[in-house]
Write a structure and sequence with these properties.
The complex is a heterodimer of chains A (66) and B (367).
Chain A (H helix, E strand, L loop, with lengths): L3 H14 L3 H13 L15 H13 L5
Helix pairs in contact in A: 1-2, 1-3
Chain B lengths: L2 E6 L5 H10 L4 E8 L5 H11 L4 E6 L3 E3 L2 E3 L3 E7 L3 E9 L9 H11 L11 E7 L6 H11 L4 E5 L11 E3 L2 E3 L3 E8 L3 E6 L2 E14 L4 E5 L2 E2 H9 L15 E5 L2 E5 L1 E5 L2 E4 L8 E7 L2 H13 L7 E7 H9 L3 H6 L6 E6 L2 E3 L1 E3 L3 E6 L1
Parallel strand pairs in B: 2-3, 8-9, 22-23
Antiparallel strand pairs in B: 1-6, 2-6, 3-10, 4-5, 4-23, 7-12, 8-12, 9-24, 10-11, 13-26, 14-15, 14-21, 15-16, 15-20, 17-18, 17-21, 19-20, 22-26, 24-25
Classes of the chains: A mainly alpha (66), B alpha+beta (367).
Chain lengths: 66, 367
């Protein structure tokens, strides 16, 4: 289903930031430093299984479930 | 003064005696120590802990020291912070970095010291310092794991050894360590700010890392072309001329418009070895150097002219920036930026702030 990557990334950011705007920005930076830039994915982006697996692994590292 | 800084160029034990005389306060909670590799690390760490037995005494060896706006070599610099600034400070050692990084024990110790669960460390009250063996090659994993484990910011740098690249040391509570990192958690009473500054602008050209050897900090291909060829094409120069441009044209991983700088170290055939890792799939901007002194002055002045007084500052400055300042004979101009602020710092083998960085200055400002 297109957009799954973006939804997973949004979920990671929401769970880690808990509504705190500073933490939101920090979490996005952490994702970029881990090699996934959320801005490169939209709600209609086609999903690549490798990228989805990578995002799942990142979620696990950050201690959140997606 | 709640924050005091000093330096000495005397040998041991006179250097420690000089620092002790200059730094002694009523309730010193934290002593930061940055020293030339000319000082015996074990003796220095032990003597400083003996001089400040009730304080948390931490630091590392350097590739140049900074104190009170002076850029030094062959010295030992230190900063003492009283409980009015830092009401709690605890240091833990993460050993054996090259064998893998497990922070669980370190965080347990910090939670125990502060009697507060990690999840309750408020990021505006707690702050971490991190000093890592600068030759471990493990900083990316260490800092990433710190960021995974807590929302508290960790800032710091990698220990140096005056560009000998033989042995770097971190100090904690009277001992010195190699292949290790020291984590220091602080509870700060009147607030702090983190300043990250680098003197580069994006050139509007980007490179996508399509084949990498992350462990070796090597990019094999950008845009499915040999890395050196793609880098040279971005600059419009022949590949053989590319290494001469590495210093002025590092790459930036952009986040919120700010580059997290990745500096090329050398070419290896048609691959490029960097001073920190680049992951496959990362899109990087080619950067162009601007003026270190002017940019840093602007960044610090912005905070100096802010609503809150800067009571002390720690500067973790990339050795590559220091080398450039030395080459341009602008160390004095750089130091003048910090006039009137108690400050220490050192020239690092990499800076820590959310990630492992190059050609950057990360600064901690105490209010």
């Amino acid at each position: 289903m297109p957009g799954q990557t973006r939804r997973m990334l949004d979920s990671i950011v929401e769970q880690r930031s808990k509504g705190n705007p500073t933490l939101r920005a920090v979490t996005v930076t952490k994702l970029i430093l881990k090699g996934i830039d959320p801005d490169r994915f939209t709600a209609t982006s086609p999903d690549d299984a490798t990228v989805v697996a990578k995002v799942r692994a990142i979620a696990a590292e950050l201690g959140v479930k997606v | 003064m709640s924050i005091r800084n000093a330096y000495s160029t005397k040998p041991l034990p006179d250097a420690v005696a000089e620092l002790q005389a200059a730094l002694s306060g009523t309730d010193t909670r934290l002593v930061l120590l940055f020293a030339s590799p000319a000082y015996d690390p074990a003796a220095l760490s032990r003597q400083m802990k003996d001089a400040f037995p009730s304080a948390c005494v931490v630091g590392c060896s350097t590739a140049g020291e900074i104190a009170g706006g002076k850029m030094l070599t062959g010295s030992v610099t230190a900063m003492a912070l009283d409980s009015e600034i830092v009401s709690g400070a605890a240091a833990v050692v993460v050993p054996n970095l090259s064998a893998g990084i497990d922070l669980s024990r370190a965080f347990e110790q910090l939670e125990h010291y502060f009697q507060t669960a990690r999840s309750d460390w408020a990021m505006d009250k707690y702050l971490g310092l991190v000093f890592a063996d600068g030759l471990s090659g493990a900083e990316e994993r260490l800092i990433e794991k710190l960021g995974d484990s807590t929302d508290v910011f960790f800032i710091g740098g990698s220990a140096g050894d005056d560009l000998h690249f033989q042995a770097t040391y971190v100090y904690a509570e009277g001992k010195s360590y190699r292949n290790s990192a020291v984590l220091v958690l602080l509870r700060i009473e009147h607030g702090f700010e983190i300043l990250k500054t680098q003197s580069f602008l994006p050139m509007g050209k980007s490179l996508l890392a399509t084949a990498v050897d992350e462990e070796q900090r090597t990019v094999i291909e950008f845009d499915h072309k040999p890395a050196l060829v793609a880098y040279a094409e971005a600059l419009g120069i022949p590949p053989e001329d590319a290494p001469a441009q590495f210093f002025d044209h590092p790459l930036g991983l952009m986040a919120h418009g700010e580059p997290f700088v990745r500096s090329p170290q050398r070419s290896d055939g048609r691959s490029i070895v960097f001073y920190c890792h680049i992951k496959e799939g990362m899109q990087l901007e080619v950067l162009e150097a601007t003026d270190i002194v002017a940019d840093t002055r602007r960044a610090v002045e912005k905070h100096k002219n802010g609503r809150r007084e800067i009571r002390g500052l720690i500067d973790f400055q990339c050795i590559l920036r220091t080398l450039q300042l030395r080459q341009e004979q602008r160390c004095e101009q750089y130091g003048e930026i910090f006039a009137g602020i108690p400050m220490v710092g050192f020239s690092t083998y990499g800076e820590a702030y959310l990630g492992h960085l190059n050609q950057t200055s990360t600064m901690l400002l105490f209010h």
